[in-house]
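Review box. Two proteins, two foldings.
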Amino acid sequence: MKRMGLIFRSKANKALDRAEDPRETLDYSYQKQLELLQKVRRGVADVATSRKRLELQLTQLQQQSAKYEDQGRKALSLGREDLAREALTRKANMQSQITDLETQYQALQAEEEKLTLASQRLQAKVDAFRTKKETIKATYTAAQAQTRIAESFSGISEEMGDVGLAIQRAEDKTAQMQARAGAIDELLASGALDDASGLGRKDDIEAELERVAGGSDVELELARMKAELSGGPAAGPAAIEQGKPAQQPQESHPQDTPRINYNK
């Protein structure tokens, strides 16, 4: 079971490696950092809002405390000590609230400063990561393009391999069709295969004329060779056409009168 699990994990890891694009991973990491930076900024804004709210409350309480002090002073001037005591009592109670709010205000202010510093540091890291990310993406894209070009030149890429196989199949099919056409032409020329269209077929008269013409050519050549071997002049065309050898010239005698046969 452990071995099967190891095999499964190794195959899954290999499939993930093939499917993973480092550029997409970098973009995703950058997006997550931007989201984190946005959350920190929202935290700073929330703390600043709370601090501002406490600041407004402190201002109101301080104004109210000053008002009670003025009322006490005015009551004493009018001889109303009881009213002056009441005003001072309310001022004392309000001073306690002011002290608590000032403590909370200082804590929120410190938290706001801490978050602001963290936001600035995170912003710097995000900016640096963005620059590095773009550099890595550009380098990866260039390396990928260079690899594809090298694979195309060497013919080991998948696309070029498919093209090579297609060319090989086309060449094989073309050679097969050429061989088949040549074989059919030879069969038609030898008469072993009839021309169904009748375009290249000869009738019997034409075939006989070609045979006789071929035979005449042979007879002419044979008569010429015989004449050369016998040492006489070459046979004339008319004699050769009749299939006769050339006649040797005879000496003429005055007493011999040539006889002309008009029946020939």
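Next protein.
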Amino acid sequence: MDLGIGGKRAIVCAASKGLGRASAMALAHEGVSLVINARGAAALEETAGVIRAATGASVMAVAGDITTEAGRAAVLAACPEPDILVNNAGGPPAGDFRHWSREDWIKAVDANMLTPIALIRAVIDGMIARRFGRIVNITSASVKSPIPSLGMSNGARAGLTGFIGGLARQVARHNVCINNLLPGPFLTDRLRSNAVELAASSGRTPEQVLADRARTNPAGRVGDPEEFGFACAFLCSAHAGYIVGQNLLLDGGAYNSSLG
């Protein structure tokens, strides 16, 4: 299927690895010109080179912390009029809420709620004027099924979800569609590092931890980042203009509900 977005321009955040990288790759395969961002310059440049070699797409790497005003300004200077915005940022650490300070909470809300909103505010009026815009926020399956140890992530991402629910319906008539992608377990560096930590405390190997995680999922496996990227690209496509304000779970069926 031709997604109808060849020649469009996209900003993809946290794109040096994992789900952000997979989303950037999928968009590049559709002929989208990319500005990709992450904090680590070396990993980001390596990813940009891989995407260029695989797709022939134009890819500009802008290293910096997207959660800061300076980081956002640098990305927006490189792509001031994007047609597509993919918001993404690493989640805050796990733990017991009794140990989190106000500063910890503010950092989590800045990264996982206020930064996406700031980027949306910067680009949405241009999308409305051009009568095309696609915004995808990569959040978490914990928005629908909170994870007790991830209280900061649960709270910050739920706040973004509520905001998007209202905004998406205000701009849909202008062919600007905003949706959220909620990943469950995908085979990313973060899942691997979590497996190493859990293995150390449970007497198992990381491979056994991952195998147990896969076995308990209805799909019998964890997700492949590439399939997440394809889902993101579709939500960014010209064919997704009637998908508005949705929270799409990609979790292999782990969230058990007849309503999705």
